[in-house]
Amino acid sequence: MSAITRDEVAHLARLSRLALADAELDHYAAQLDQIIAAVARVAEVASGDIPPSSHALPLTNVYRPDEARPCLTPQEALAMAPAVEDDRFRVPRILGEEA
Fold it and tell me: One Pfam family, short name please (predicted)?
């Protein structure tokens, strides 16, 4: 007996805004049933004495510390720009939107 019914697949399809044919409902019900059975088998294997982990290898933070450093002023950054408007780079309009 299938744990997932056609009606449940149809309901999921409506929630997902998918249009499924009647044959697809039966097909996906069987597939979802197999997926649920596979997940249940994995849950049976999981043991309480194994600590949960998100990675097979330990990870370390590879980022440098966030430190303030000297940078360009807005005027220096815009000095060689081909076009500037209101202390910003002016670029051509690409979407034809009204400003």
Answer: GatC
Over the stretch 3-14, which tens digit does the pLDDT of each residue have?
Answer: 888 999 999 999
For 37, residues 6+ apart whose C-beta sits below 8 A from its C-beta are 3
CA quadruple 65, 68, 73, 76: dihedral sign = negative
Length of the chain, please? Answer: 99
**What are the DSSP E strand ranges found in 1-99?**
84-85, 88-89
pTM of the model: 0.43
Burial 62-82 (b: 16+ CB within 10 A, else e): eeeeeeeeeeeeeeeebeeee
> For the residues of 39-66, what is the DSSP string, one character each?
HHHHHHH--TTSPP-S-SS-----PPP-
